[in-house]
Amino acid sequence: xxxxxxxxxxxxxTDAVRTEVRTLIGEARHAALASLQPGSGHPLxxxxxxxxxxxxxxxxxxxxxxxxxGALLADPRCSLLVGTPGKGDxxxxxxxSILCQAEVITDAQEISAARKCYLAAHPKxxxxxxxxxxxxxxxxxxxxxxNGGFGRGFRLEAADLLKLEPDQGDRRN
Amino acid sequence: xxxxxxxxxxxxxTDAVRTEVRTLIGEARHAALASLQPGSGHPLxxxxxxxxxxxxxxxxxxxxxxxxxGALLADPRCSLLVGTPGKGDxxxxxxxSILCQAEVITDAQEISAARKCYLAAHPKxxxxxxxxxxxxxxxxxxxxxxNGGFGRGFRLEAADLLKLEPDQGDRRN
Lengths: 173, 173
Hints:
The structure is a homodimer of 173-residue chains.
Chain A: H1 15-27, E1 30-36, E2 43-52, E3 58-63, H2 67-74, E4 77-82, E5 95-104, H3 108-121, E6 134-147, E7 153-157, H4 158-162
């Protein structure tokens, strides 16, 4: 009970599943971020605008005025929930929970690349992209759990999210 | 930087704001839950179906097969993010982050009340409401942060979410 779901709840991860998850993340423009409140360690759920680097690594752009920024600077462990429910039962819609390690982007060249990715996904962010209290964080995926709707559960590794090798078939399983 | 936003970012909480937040939570049918992975303490973001008791206390109904159930049983500290973005910049849309304490509901009479509330919000949950591995958790609000769109930030106490006293005006501030 304590540690999550038994192994046999999960289905084999195929390339079709990898594509489905990468598309879900790549097309998402927002996510829920779980971070840790500094000091108390209480979990904190908040909304973030989302974009991805070319390799699929999630990228967020957040204000120092928001509690999650202080949280990630104090403890980089975090999690992203990606996927928005449509009509009907919200649990019938695909979503992926990704455990991540946050890294603030400080290198000028990397900031420039991040800025380009973020603006491509969020043209309206032009209004605040140059405000001095905002920062880019790269969220390095560690592992993920994809739920494609009732009875469709998958456990994914970082490589499943970041690299798609269409020639490889299902040999990883 | 470490502890979140400075005080003066937040605006005074009026009854109109309380009503706005209570309506946002009361009408929501899903939320993002931030919980703590047992053992590692890594934050975990996941989707939950949401309903509310009559006093506004959030209620979730979750499967033992899902990682968040083990997480809440091991450590009841959690957070809910409520509010779904519409079109345009996802950060322009209202959302509330609630810090909560989870309590599994075990009393037969309370289960019956929870069942009624949950089914009223989620008629399709009839399909799985009686499965033995699902449980109801009451999420007692501790405090909340409401973001009504750019420049509209509010810090709320539990009483702001749970009890609306229309006669009281803004005397609390």
